Amino acid sequence: MVAGKNPAETGVAGEVQQDRFVGGQDLTRWDTTPGRLLASVVKRISSLLGSHAALVLTLAVGAALAVTLASVFAQVYESVVEADGVAGLDHPVLDGAKTLRSPTLNLLITAYTDVGGTIGMPVLALAVMVLLAWRRKSLTPVILMLVAGLGSLLMTIAGKELVGRTRPDLADAVPPYEYSASFPSGHSLNSVVIAGIVAYLIILRLKSARALTAAGAAVFAATMGLSRVYLGHHWLTDVLGAWALGAAWLSLVITAHRLYLTTRVHPA
Length: 268
Known about the structure:
Elements: H1 11-18, E1 21-22, E2 25-26, H2 33-49, H3 51-83, H4 90-99, H5 103-115, H6 120-136, H7 140-163, H8 186-203, H9 210-230, H10 236-265
Antiparallel strand pairs: 1-2
Helix pairs in contact: 2-3, 2-10, 3-7, 3-10, 5-9, 6-7, 6-8, 7-8, 7-10, 8-9, 8-10, 9-10
């Protein structure tokens, strides 16, 4: 048991008693017919395999849906770019960002964007994951964060492979330069997913400051995405698309967790 912790605050007991309600809303209540049907199916799976196994299976199905969503979104994105719809903002926004640059600001924003990179974000996520798992004496934060991160990575890879959009010219970018495909912005997508799931897990145990926690995660994701445009590493539409994909995947992960809680509170 964690020192100073009541047994009811950790493990399965803590999840059932403390994670079920957020601001008076019962996360195990499903008001729609599809929601109740989905909960019924997952409860049956849980009765056969166990709640954590049902959570992993639900997240795996969600990850497959997320990659499919990324594929469909990529096709829509290409159509928008070809029609010069929202993509008409890309060059003016980049030109505006270039007017804001200075050596000091470039250095600061490069350091900040590295937090959301291939080294910074995994290290940050791993540290938070271990802390939450230790504090709660539960594997649930580990499962949620690992699968959330994996799904985010798969969506990024799928989007880049399918679209293959070229990044802004190196002459318009701040070094160090990047050479992978531009859409979607991995920094932007990952920041939405990781910051979002961390905020969600924290909010579950907060009695107050829930809105402030959610706002902090939103600001982090927003500024991370905008930093990519400022540095000339991505077009604005790469960031907008990544935010949309990240929000969709985050919603699927949270739904999977709600289903997990349902199997704990209302077993089949």
